[in-house]
């Protein structure tokens, strides 16, 4: 597949998550909630995580923002469900490295739809948009562990 076709495919994946977000909404019952915003562009995410026995059982989000931040939230909630908190935080580190254009020691296919966001690294002003939900997740698990 040529670079242009791959780039187009990634754009389609991002727009699909933006127009048809996965896990958008609110959790019922006991969960933790993290609100985070990017004052530079106005993106706002409310992330809700249900963590049981050090495992992310469920994740939902709501918010307002650009296609990058909201599709990233959709992809992230899909990716971390069922993972241990440690695995979710590790995945966040890998995503952060990817956004900074660093080499990541992971099979890109293991990232699923998240790999569609790797092109964001070329646009430094958009990196904070993509990482916003991931930073919210990190903050949430840190707060949970501190309790």
TrEMBL record:
Transmembrane segments: none annotated. Pfam families: NifU_N. InterPro entries: NIF_FeS_clus_asmbl_NifU_N. Gene3D superfamilies: 3.90.1010.10. Residues 10-129 form the NIF system FeS cluster assembly NifU N-terminal domain. This is Fe-S cluster assembly sulfur transfer protein SufU. The gene is sufU.
């Amino acid at each position: 597949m040529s670079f242009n076709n791959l780039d187009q495919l990634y754009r389609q994946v991002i727009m699909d998550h933006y127009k048809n977000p996965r896990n958008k909404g609110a959790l019922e019952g006991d969960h933790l909630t993290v609100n985070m915003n990017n004052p530079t562009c106005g993106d706002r995410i409310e992330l809700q995580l249900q963590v049981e026995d050090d495992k992310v059982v469920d994740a939902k989000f709501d918010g307002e923002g650009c296609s990058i931040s909201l599709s990233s939230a959709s992809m992230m909630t899909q990716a971390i469900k069922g993972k241990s908190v440690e695995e979710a935080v590790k995945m966040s580190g890998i995503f952060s490295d990817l956004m900074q254009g660093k080499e990541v020691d992971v099979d890109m296919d293991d990232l699923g739809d998240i790999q569609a966001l790797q092109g964001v690294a070329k646009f430094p002003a958009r990196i904070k948009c993509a990482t916003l939900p991931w930073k919210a997740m990190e903050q949430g698990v840190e707060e949970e562990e501190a309790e």
